[in-house]
Amino acid sequence: MKATGIPLLRGAYYVFWREMKRLFRQRTRIFMAVFQPVIWLVLMGNMMAGLTDNPYAAQMLGVDNYLIFMTPGVMAMSSLFGGVFSGISIIWDRRLGFLQKMLTAPIPRFSIPLGKIWAIMLQIFLQMLIIMAIAYLLGVRFATGLGGVIAMLLYSGLLGSAMGGISLAVATVIKTPETLFAVVNFLTMPLIFSSNAMFPLAAMPLWLQLIARYNPVSYAVLPMRSLAAVGWIWPDLLTGFFMLLLLNIVILLVAYRRFERGLVL
Amino acid sequence: MESKGEYLSRREPAQEQTAPARREMIRTENLVKVFPGGNRAVDGLTFSVYEGEIFGFLGPNGAGKSTTIMILTTLLAATEGRAFVSGYNVSRDREQVRLHLGYVSQVLAVDDALSGEENLWLQAGFYNLSRQERKKRVDEVLELVGLQQRRKDLVETYSGGMRKRLDIAAGLIHRPRVLFLDEPTLGLDIQTRREIWSYIRRLREEAGMTILLTTHYMEEADQICERIGIIDHGRLMVVDTPANLKKSLGGDLIFFDFAAATGEEQRERALQRLREQPFIQKISPRGSEAHGFVAVTADGEADLPRFFAALAEINVKVSRVTLKVPSLDDVFLAFTGSELREEHGDKEKHMQERFTMRRLRT
Ligand SMILES: Nc1ncnc2c1ncn2[C@@H]1O[C@H](COP(=O)(O)OP(=O)(O)O)[C@@H](O)[C@H]1O
Ligand SMILES: [Mg+2]
């Protein structure tokens, strides 16, 4: 009888298992993952709090508390950052020879990025729960309650997974962390500033509004903001969900191809 | 140590053991690898490694040893030619090849953030084994490389030699038929190197594993390999047993000086006499010293007594004798014309090497 290799999901599970072990041993990484969004939330929240005293600004924000406007934005940014650096782990694995070792094992190659994306998503879920808990302590009350919290986890996870997929796919051809950082910065800064994560669409010039509308970050922020401040606005929720899902499928297909055929050692 | 014995005894079908010809476990046909940019790292390699053999690739840095191994382990695609591992084509039956091979690369591919045990558990997870089986094998390989005591410690607290042993253990977890060891002792101190050699020998003797290793240490090739292929510029210069390779340089050398009192006529007579002996292939003077000569014989240790007997018959004395067996160094130099060479090319590769060295030295 011919022995066979192991199925995709099982391979991905072991990759995921390793990432989890690593994550929970790297205290500084956990510390950073928790405190970076907290700092954003507290600083931005206080800095911008004055805005809502201005009735015109409050109208653009659509809320009378900047923090409730800002929380989904910070969540989206943290998800984006959580995902977008995941390619670094491929670069380190390549340097360590661990990537090569996994590639000589009978696991499907795609289980490597898949397992790493699962790890990113779990990390993002934990981070989002912490952000939401802190927002709660700062007085933010979400309009959709617990259901909304779960839905927001979903949107954050989808955004993080898409960003993680891009980063992992890029890392198949990039060998140094410096180059990957450069690519990532080139990608993330415009993505954030041309989205509705920090400023309302209404406050943007027309051309930027147009870009912001089709920016994947906005597709996560808009539904989350509805969930946080308004309620179950189904058209926003569904559009956001399907666009992010589509984006994920496309990116995972690209990552699949890169890992199966184009992985540079 | 029951578990060890169990690990090492392979359950081969009976007919394979009685088969008359040794099975080819690795076979390449005119293998070529051209890297983007035109570097022909492997340039027409054809060789076979037979079941249960330890085959060594000996060559200077940049000779193409690692590249060849990476093709055989499905990490790189060959530009031309074919290769088979355990009977499977490395470019077509990748999954079967991967199931049958163990690969220990020249860098230390262990995860420092995990414990030794976790590294092995992870590796075992990559093969289709039951949970129980995985547990058993982790114990076995830990025992085999002597890391049972430290299994729960994080790898970042291990010494370079311990990391290398763990890395080798990980390559053994699925009981591969063919094991690839790329520079298994690179950067290790001599004592640790000897330890690793003894593990490698045991794998072959007790588990019947076929092993292809690369090295640029002559001593290593000489000590543990049954056959050696000397490789340079991606080409195999010669393949043979270490003993035959050394013989190919023309046998052993007997360096001798006649006693100072020996007269010219007496010396000529002695040289004449020695030349008549069938075991002596050649005698030549040694440079400037009038009394010093060197004789080439097929088997120095057996021929030395005969050499003395021949001289004693005509009553000529020698004041000193040295027997020199050609070393693999001499063979290597004869075939590659080079010692360690500076490597050119990939910057990232140098980075990786420096990185490995740093981790080995801790
Ligand atoms: N990824 C790569 N890209 C380009 N050249 C490479 C790559 N890997 C190795 N080489 C080159 O191929 C040659 C053989 O390298 P290698 O097989 O690593 O040699 P060895 O293992 O015998 O020291 C060297 O000249 C090396 O610079
Ligand atoms: Mg090498």
Task: List the main descriptive attributes of the protein structure presented here.
heterodimer; A: 265 residues; mainly alpha; B: 362 residues; alpha/beta; Rossmann fold; Alpha-Beta Plaits; six-stranded mixed β-sheet; four-stranded antiparallel β-sheet; 14 helices; 40% helix; 24% strand; binds adenosine-5'-diphosphate; binds magnesium ion
Describe this structure in words.
The complex is a heterodimer of chains A (265) and B (362). With 265 residues, chain A is an all-alpha fold. Chain A has one domain. Chain A has twelve helices and no strands. Chain A has helices at residues 8-25, 27-49, 55-61, 66-84, 87-96, 98-103, 111-137, 145-171, 177-193, 206-213, 216-230, 234-261. The longest helix of chain A is centred in the last third of the chain and has 28 residues, at 234-261. Chain A is elongated, with a radius of gyration of 19 Å. The relative contact order of chain A is 0.14. The model of chain A has no long low-confidence stretch (mean pLDDT 89). Chain B is of the alpha/beta class and 362 residues long. Chain B has two domains: 4-245 and 342-361, P-loop containing nucleotide triphosphate hydrolases (Rossmann fold); 250-325, Alpha-Beta Plaits (2-Layer Sandwich), CATH 3.30.70. Chain B has 14 helices and 14 strands. Chain B has helices at residues 2-8, 14-18, 65-72, 94-100, 116-125, 131-144, 160-172, 190-207, 218-224, 242-247, 264-276, 300-313, 328-336, 347-360, and strands at residues 24-34, 40-50, 54-58, 80-85, 88-89, 101-104, 178-182, 210-215, 227-232, 235-240, 252-258, 280-285, 292-297, 318-324. In chain B, the strands form three sheets. Chain B has a six-stranded mixed sheet, sandwiched between helices. In chain B, a hairpin with a 6-residue loop joins strand 12 and strand 13 (292-297). In chain B, helix 5 (116-125) packs across helix 6. Chain B is elongated and about 80 Å long. Chain A binds chain B through residues 2-6, 10-11, 13-14, 17-18, 21-22, 25-26, 95-98, 100-107, 175-176, 265, and chain B through 70, 73-76, 95-96, 98-99, 101, 103, 105-111, 113-114, 118, 122-123, 125-128, 154, 170, 348, 351-352, 355-356. Bound molecules: adenosine-5'-diphosphate and magnesium ion. Residues 65-66, 106, 182-183 of chain B line the site of magnesium ion (MG).
